[in-house]
Input
Amino acid sequence: MEVYVVDSHALLWFITEDKRLSSVAEQILDMAEVGEVMVFVPTIVLAEINNIVRKKNLGITIEEILDRIEQGDGLAIAAFDLTVFQTMLTLPPHAARKIAPDNLSKTLRYCITSLGP
Output
């Protein structure tokens, strides 16, 4: 099964049906809702979404967002904790560049999946 990590804006735009979401991201998140792919939602993304929802009137609450995540068969909340961060620190410089050239989501995906469920 393909595994992805979503960032805050992509998830928020998907849930609020914002037109700024790319068609590729929309397709992946649609597939995650029915369990065709796995999309991890790092806790740091939830914290950022909570701040965005509190600052802007988007017509949605963090509780509704959490419910939507829980309903998706291929959506799972993943802790971005010290263990994940320490795993990121152990990546050799060439691997970190290869995995994540300016893309934290790819590095997180690697760390989360390498640590297991």
Notes: The radius of gyration is 14 Å.
